Amino acid sequence: MKEQQRILVFRLSSLGDVALCVPVIMNVLEQNPELSIDFVTPKFMHDLFPVHNRLKFVDFDKKGKHQGILGLLSLLKSIDLKQYNAIADLHEVLRTKVLATASFLKGKKVVSIKKDRKARKALINGETSQPLKPTTEKYADVFRRLGFKLELDHHLKNYLFDSIPRTNKIGIAPFARHQGKMYPIDKLKEVVVALSKTNPIEIYGNKSELDDLKDWKSIGNIEFCKGNGLKDELKQMSGLQLMISMDSANMHLASLVGVPVVSIWGVTHPNAGFLGYGQSWEGIIQDENCQWRPTSVYGNKLGPSDNPTGFGGITPEMIINKTYEMLIK
């Protein structure tokens, strides 16, 4: 019998990136019965993970007691590092570098994600069109380098809920953090009008976003998802037949609950490694003729003025047709 191992894992943001951690964490626990994990992330993101007796959480309070260098050191001081065999940094930003370095100075083995920024830069600069390694595999490599066996099948699966009945509802998540990742709302409304004639539509977004779409209620056969917190929203999402999403957190949330996604890409590109876990490349909609894409990995940089978001070549009809194509698969 292998000796018991306990690992402290850091991934402090964002919602979509933490969601991508879920299949990796659950698979490494399943494939390594000797392993226990304490996962450091903001409290509201704990609901992204199913309950597991070898998985615990440490709350990261970014805007409160863990703010700044002193806050990070306070976080580390509250954790008994002696109980851990190693530290896994799945984020590799300034905050986690501080935590990782402090842990290393206390004698702990530390392994950090290799983001391969050189390859990302080559993709953005048009020097390569080859897909980068999926982010989930980069996370998995951290655990492999720590000596744990880990294979990912990249199959779509509901990690959170059993026996949720599927309906014929189509979910639509119109919003994203950056303008370059948001398909024009007026064109998306055309998609909603067409699809609502055959399927009930459920719109996803936060309160202020949904308030901006109040006029959509007049379309008919449409409702806004008003979940009571993240877990409840995920439960509602797991009953969808399909989700239409931007390159946004909702693509990854739908993936967590086993829902196929039609994903619409603007200034970002699925070749950067951020396609939802288990999602089919057949579900991707992008302008293949837009040669300057991607402008960045995160979508915070617009393109040329004649087509700044990269959505210029994507028509509502393309999204409607792709949706029906995916529904019959």
From TrEMBL:
Taxonomic lineage is: Bacteria, Pseudomonadati, Bacteroidota, Flavobacteriia, Flavobacteriales
Key word Transferase present: yes
Q: Which InterPro entries does this chain map to?
A: Glyco_trans_9, LPS_LOS_Heptosyltrfase
Q: Which GO terms describe its molecular function?
A: ADP-heptose-lipopolysaccharide heptosyltransferase activity
**One Pfam family per UniProt:** Glyco_transf_9
| Record's GO cellular component terms | cytosol
Keywords recorded for this protein, A-Z: Glycosyltransferase, Transferase
Q: Which organism is it from?
A: Profundicola chukchiensis
* Domain of life, per lineage: Bacteria
* Name this polypeptide is given: Glycosyltransferase family 9 protein
Q: Which BP terms from GO are recorded?
A: lipopolysaccharide core region biosynthetic process
User: Gene3D superfamilies attached here?
Assistant: Glycogen Phosphorylase B
